[in-house]
Amino acid sequence: MRRFENKDTETTEHLQRKQNKIYTTIISIVTIYPISSERMIPATRLP
User: What is the pLDDT along the chain (47 residues), one digit of tens a residue?
Assistant: First the structure.
């Protein structure tokens, strides 16, 4: 039974690491997107 418990904790840690990676990517997109959109808007407004 202990082996299974250890496996469960390992999987939960792995999932948490995956979630952290997802959150960091989302944060980076959120921070980078406004800058890129600001640069893109004037380009689209030009005739």
Answer: 556 666 777 788 888 999 999 999 988 888 877 766 666 666 566 55
DSSP-assigned states of every residue in 1-47: -HHHHHHHHHHHHHHHHHHHHHHHHHHHHHHHHHHHHHHHHHHHH--
pTM above 0.70, yes or no: no
Amino acid in position 9: T
Contact residues for 42 (Cβ-Cβ < 8 A; gap 6+): none
